[in-house]
């Protein structure tokens, strides 16, 4: 499970900056990522730059081609929406199992995370809100107490992480996300599998819709 208070590594900071450049249109599909230029830009060695690029390749935002190096991949909205469709189902299943299986202690911790996220949202701290948001979701995945489902969910979650992060930039999205989390949490606390599954599926589906709209506006 991720730790919302863990400082971001240099590679993560570089990755987030490049993600921002991609989603804001400053780096277009086909743009080459020059390791030396990026190292100079961030005042760092090429080692964290290479690690950041590898993270971006794993998420699908960057691709590496023989003799060409790393380049910004085409933003395939259709594929992204398909991934969100799958994610809504498997995360919904996590929530369903979690409603049945989470202990009182696990539910209490989830409620505490929700309160922390609320404080970050109120302070306008988007970075910390997103970190806590990921931990909130991780806690539900863990709460399913199904290792196979958890592994599948975490793998796809990692690929969708950049998209889920940047849809939060849409006006009013953080407040709406908090309301969706309240619905999920309420269903989990009352041990309502149907309600938890439906609330989680709705939450993830809305993320896909908002991100697609966000990209269409920004590009």
Describe it for me?
This protein is mainly α and 219 residues long. The protein has two domains: 10-72, Arc Repressor Mutant, subunit A; 77-218, Up-down Bundle (Four Helix Bundle (Hemerythrin (Met), subunit A)). The chain is 74% helix and 4% strand. It has nine helices and two strands, in the order H-H-H-E-E-H-H-H-H-H-H. It has helices at residues 10-23, 35-42, 46-59, 77-101, 104-123, 126-143, 147-166, 173-189, 193-218; strands at 62-65, 69-72. A two-stranded antiparallel ribbon has the order 1-2. A hairpin with a 3-residue loop joins strand 1 (62-65) and strand 2. Helix 4 (77-101) packs across helix 7, helix 4 (77-101) packs antiparallel against helix 9 (193-218) and helix 8 (173-189) packs antiparallel against helix 9 (193-218). The radius of gyration is 18 Å and the shape is elongated.
Please outline the helices and strands.
Elements: H1 10-23, H2 35-42, H3 46-59, E1 62-65, E2 69-72, H4 77-101, H5 104-123, H6 126-143, H7 147-166, H8 173-189, H9 193-218
Strand % is under 5%
* Anisotropy-based shape: elongated
How would a textbook summarize the main sheet? 2 strands, antiparallel
Q: CATH H level of the largest domain: which superfamily?
A: GntR ligand-binding domain-like
Q: Which CATH C-level class of the largest domain is it?
A: Mainly Alpha
Give the fraction of residues assigned to helices: over 70%
Query: What's the structural domain tally?
Result: 2
Give the uncertain stretches in residue-range form. Answer: 1-7
Helix count equals: 9
Q: Structural class of the helices, strands and pairings?
A: mainly alpha
Spatial strand arrangement across the major sheet? 1-2
């Amino acid at each position: 499970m991720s730790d919302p208070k863990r400082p971001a590594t240099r590679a993560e900071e570089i990755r987030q900056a490049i993600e921002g450049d991609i989603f804001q249109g400053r780096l277009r599909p086909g743009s080459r990522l020059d390791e030396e230029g990026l190292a100079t830009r961030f005042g760092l060695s090429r080692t964290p730059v290479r690690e950041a690029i590898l993270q971006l390749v794993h998420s699908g935002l960057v691709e590496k081609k023989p003799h060409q190096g790393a380049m910004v991949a085409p933003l395939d909205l259709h594929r992204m929406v398909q991934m969100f469709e799958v994610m809504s189902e498997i995360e919904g299943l996590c929530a369903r199992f979690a409603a049945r299986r989470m202990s009182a202690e696990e539910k209490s911790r989830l409620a505490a995370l929700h309160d922390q996220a609320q404080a970050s949202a109120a302070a306008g701290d988007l970075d910390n809100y997103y970190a806590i948001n990921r931990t909130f979701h991780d806690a539900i995945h863990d709460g399913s107490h199904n290792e196979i489902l958890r592994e599948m969910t975490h793998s796809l979650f990692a690929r969708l992480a950049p998209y889920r992060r940047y849809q939060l930039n849409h006006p009013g999205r953080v407040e709406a996300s908090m309301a969706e989390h309240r619905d999920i949490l309420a269903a989990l606390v009352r041990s309502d599998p149907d309600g938890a599954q439906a609330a989680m599926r709705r939450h993830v589906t809305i993320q896909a819709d908002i991100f697609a709209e966000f990209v269409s506006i920004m590009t």
